[in-house]
Design goal:
Twelve copies of one chain form a homododecamer. Chain A contains one helix and three strands; from the N terminus they run βαββ. Chain A is α+β, with helices and mostly antiparallel strands. Chains A, B, C, D, E, F, G, H, I, J, K, L: Pfam families: Dodecin (PF07311).
């Protein structure tokens, strides 16, 4: 009988959305065990004064399995 | 002045959605106090190779009262 | 030329969601004629101090046919 | 590399939502292989002239694995 | 590389929605560091037997920065 | 076994959203008993020719308990 | 200080959606005063055995002004 | 025990949305039996270089009854 | 490499929704070049004191191509 | 035959949401004529290092009437 | 007079979301003609026991033109 | 007291979604100052006759700061 919890995180990367997702999952791994998946809720880029994309931001719902 | 927190869980049962809800609340009770309610966000069934429903999955938002 | 009205109700039962739906339809039958259907908008359970599910709550949109 | 398709069905039962789900999955099994899951999109009951629930209707999205 | 977490709270006040928000943020401050923002998901008032508004309830998503 | 009904109202005030909510609940009290809560669905302001906010409009779903 | 109520209706016509809307408003006029507007929530057509559209169905939210 | 399937189509007409719906249902009739209804998900018009509406596009979910 | 902008308009007609759409597109043509499409976000009718539909209102998102 | 346009703005105030709305409408008045209404899409507060609410942010859709 | 159908697929790739989309379209090409577009409904990553992203999953709605 | 405006654009690229976003922001930079962010509303790919992805399309809401 499996029970899992969902935690919401926002992670950012100067490179790409895919990298922001990897960073977010990696950070969550530091405190959570049995991470199973991450659903992408929102994607946003920040733009600096030169008009360049400075940050790729991803809002994710991470699911991790609870121990019995 | 009451403040409560909401935690998202996914629980599963081989029997029914109602049972999956009970299991999810019971598991949350192990780590949380003052659980007040659980709102049903999503319901899904898993199907095994014989075409039978093997699992009833419920995605819930559980509300619990914070102590002052 | 059929015209029907929709009324929103929340009904509760200590037993199950299905029972809460039956109770809601039965109560609506006391004051409304020609009830045709009930669409389930939301489902929530209430939890008592012992951590048991004390109430199954259903929020429904009931459609009933208006007489010409 | 897995690819699956999603098909939408509405199934009904005079007994309960759980039964309507089982019926829907069983019917889909007749024509589809590798059914994996069914997500519940909508739930509605039909009411007859006596005010009794005559039908439990479920609108589901069924996911099945495509062969390579 | 910033990572932040989102926690969902419901807070209430007998005075106004703005006050309920302040209370909710203040309570979260007791247990969380680096709170950055709170997005208002839902607003509801409770009414007592005299027909007066007894409580302003706010459902918020609070974002706080995680330390590296 | 509690059953409640939901009625949708739009109320307006020249002062503030909070006042528009109070007005709406007060008006509903004239015709309905056992009002329990009001959920805020939408908020809009109207603007007059001078560019000033002339009206705060709130669209609410009011829940009231039905007598057995 | 204006307060208005919203009632949900489904009306049908064998001719067109516009006609179904007119029919719905006309029927509501029989029992309600001060009808101001009708927002179109949903549109659906029914199809008979010959494959022809037999009915244009509109689900509307009708707003009417309450008297002080 | 009725089971129906839902298929999504986009149909277009140079005349009107109603005509686009009729065309879509008529085309579906060529390959599907027991079509019961079509729910309108989206409506869009295309505009040509002269600024005239060249096409009325309707995105519909067509429900058809499966044989036992 | 095509880039287009989207502008939101509300247009009204005493005749029908289709006419309100044509009017809205025609008015946008006065100030915008390269209009490509209009997606229908919302539809509402206004009702006068005699209970007749006085106005068909359409809320649209108009897409137009930007010049390089 | 009225046609209006909708523009989306985000405005902020250190005092309250109501003030943020007034500021947003006032700023829009500087560049737009015939502003009619502002619908509140989103509300968010920013929190400073002391844990106090430093800014009330409102995301609004402002409707203004186009001249013929 | 163009009519197109929409089919929903979920495709996965160990490399990236863009690759998962390419794979999904390529697989659909095996059984469908005149594919025109694919709208991204959902994106999710799966995580293995080492905490690495093992799969990029995309849920898409693929539109293909029906022959007359 | 900061006020910003939101403009909706659709941009396309033959390479990837990330590139389409960069193109859209770069094009907006030609006419707008103080661009702060771009939220991704929708993502869609177009497919050519050979079944290859010919275009990555992104629908974005770009936020830019208004000068006092």
């Amino acid at each position: 009988m499996s029970i899992s919890r969902i935690t919401e995180v926002k992670s950012a990367s100067p490179i790409s959305f895919d990298d922001a997702i990897r960073q977010g999952v990696a950070r969550a791994e530091k405190t959570l065990k049995n991470i199973k998946s991450a659903w992408i809720a929102n994607q946003e880029v920040l733009v600096n004064e030169n008009g360049d994309i400075s940050e790729y931001r991803v809002h994710m719902k991470i699911t991790f399995l609870l121990e019995e």
